[in-house]
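job 3f2a | input accepted
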Amino acid sequence: MSEMTNDSLTGSARMEKIVALCKRRGFVFPASEIYGGINGFWDYGPLGAQLKNNLRDAWWRDMVEAPPIGPDGHPLSIVGLDSSIVQNPKAWIASGHVGGFSDPMIDCRESKARYRADHLMVLRPKEQGEYLALFAFLEGEPEPALKRAKKVLRLSVHLADFETHLLSELNEEERSKVYGPDAAKAGTLTEPREFNLMFKTYVGATSSEDNVAYLRPETAQGIFLNYKNVLDTSRVRVPFGIAQVGKAFRNEVTPRNYIFRSREFEQMEMEWFCAPDEAASWFEFWSKTRLEWWKSLGVAEENLRLRKHDQDELAHYSREGEGTYDVEYRYPFTAPDFGELEGVAHRGDFDLTQHQEHSKTKLQYFDPETRERFMPHVIEPASGLTRGVLAILCESYFVDPERPSPEIMRFPSRLAPIKAGVFPLVNKDGMPEIAEKLYLELRTKFPTQFDVKQAIGKRYARMDEAGTPFCFTIDGETTTEQTVTVRDRDTGSQERIAIDSVSAFLSERVG
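job 3f2a | predicted structure (511 res):
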């Protein structure tokens, strides 16, 4: 660890350190761990739950309670919603999810493992030996395939000795020579077939097909189903938005990359309803606005980008509109490339038109000024809350080799699970009593931790790993000078301030 620096720790090595710290400090745990876990599901511990709640609250504050300023210089109109996880199954037929919400899946006949076809890559040796051999791996994880190649080819080879291709690019003969990611023989991978991602459940006392329902794969449809209710009960007029945060479920073929791709996750989605002739300009507005929001949280500009989807990437609803932008982040497991953080989709009028047709309920909007009726078009900024937590964890992780305990979580103060730590330097001479009094004052305004155990250096290290921006230490001078020591998490520097100004100090910096 002493040789490790923040700049030298990259890729999978960096991700391994982040995952280990998150487990050790109670950010994220494998779900049902005492029973061996369950793939694609995660639990959030004390620090992780608070971090997730802080990110959720920041999004809700900036989208619903204090929405962005629009192009005309006035605040936008966005209201909140909390819809049910289980909806009438007809809604998912109308939305296209029952018939078309699927991913291409490949099975391995030897290992019985399943893979998402568009995530499978292959290593092809640049120099072919006596026979053709190719080695499959999950995108971004070539190391196991390289290890298998060394064993099969009986050569000391490196990644530079191979070309990388998509499995789907291979012809039938080449596919028969592919070693699956978990197989000892070649030719065990099946042809791709479509796999529906919906989680099926049953409503009522019997498990018959008449009682089938689904766990929602996205929060958006609950918004479309309540569009008319919101119009009828709120003082909103097009253009306006409906936002919600909630759980979604997708039976992913290959959950992977920690909490990046899981089967149960949370989304932060907003549907912006606007006139058809204004949709293109709103699409550009929301794409840029959402990119800037992630920057405002402290995510480095060089780790973010805005990328427009190619035609073959578009979801069925986006093909009815003008496409999708992704706000992408450079995760350790995608570096130097990027992975999706948030999508901004031009959904057109696909969803409302489908629900109007299937429900036989009129969903067109009547404009009281122009006296015209039209079906609103929709712009959807949709972010994964849990994926956002991962981006913040990756962005905040920092290694300072000059410190005895070098790992630090440099959370933006707005998102930090604990805002302040309060410690007595030693447990005598009235210091614990003064420290506890200060703690009791601060905890009513800020998430604060009071700690009297072990040496002060170890307490600082615990707060660094938890991402606490400031620690206040009561020492010998406090009783005579009425001052405390303030330690800054990021720099490790210390200064003294009056004990009665601690609350104001925190309000100014983390409030």
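job 3f2a | The CA atoms of residues 121 and 317 lie 28 Å apart.
job 3f2a | closed
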